[in-house]
Amino acid sequence: MGEIRATGLVLHPQRDCGPAIERIRRWATPRGIELFALPGEQGSGPEVPALSQSELAERTDLLVSIGGDGTMLRTLRLAYQRQTPVLGVNLGKLGFLAEVDVPDLDDALEAIAEQRFHVEARVAVEALVGAEPGRIAFNDVAMVRTPGNGQAAVALTIDGQPFVRYVADAVVVSTPTGSTAYSFSAGGPLVSPRAEGLVVVPVAPHSAFNRALVLACSESLALELLPSSGPLGLEVDGELTRRLLPGDRVDLATRLGAGSVIRLGNTTFYQRAQRKLRLSDPGELG
What we know:
286 residues; alpha+beta; 6 helices
């Protein structure tokens, strides 16, 4: 990342982002760095001009996500086309994606100005249904049953070869980043965000084969609703995007280097996971 001339702010819609914004303003103003925000974002104040999502990604050299992991995912999707580096500022609960808490933001911004950081590339998965535009997910794509309307019966095809059928409450296709979200709740593995690949996990499976799958990024994946399936919802990063009916097919393509997350080296993924999941310190186990 070169010289920072403009920074974009993406804010949590319900939390108080004011203290973080004030720290960013004190850092940016003496350096002549312009600040921009999205229309309607609360807390940025009238002195921060608003830009559309496409303009914000196009005109900024750095995006700062202020909120939690949901805000961070929204910022990564916004930055997808240009892969603008994203700094995550955590408000409230400890997240897996955010890099710093508000009290540490001053030091983090100084480190960025002095180029004392590294950029961690993130894998995304693109979901395509027929001729519709693809939808990008940095966490996961899930095909979820509709309560009262039968199970999810889904056939998986890998590299054009029919492989297995799942009957379950849902089928989740997760990136390494999303391995700590829906996939983990369903019994999937923790995966390093530096890994490249996809994890397929059935949720509450009823089929004979009930194991998760790990695919390489180079392998193509398609999920088709079987005639016995109930109608399903297609969720992309937790957002319901459309309804699926028996016979519908979702093609999934891995996008390498789709996102860029700023890391300062203060904590590792495993330290954040240890705290978030309340895992015992290995030193306490002896």
